[in-house]
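input
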Amino acid sequence: MKCNVGGIDRTLRIVVGAALVGATALSYLPVWGYIGVVPLATGLLGWCPAYLPFGFRTCKTV
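output
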């Protein structure tokens, strides 16, 4: 798993994912809000499987 998520993309994924999960845990959103686990996980891992088929990469190459 090479890093393919970086920079602002990674930060936005973590913030949006945490906000969705937090809002759902506090009952501001229905249960579908737990879908925020997906962007949260991809942001924390720095790897998104959906980017692979398209060859997208938002992190700097090493």
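quick obs: The chain has a mean pLDDT of 94.
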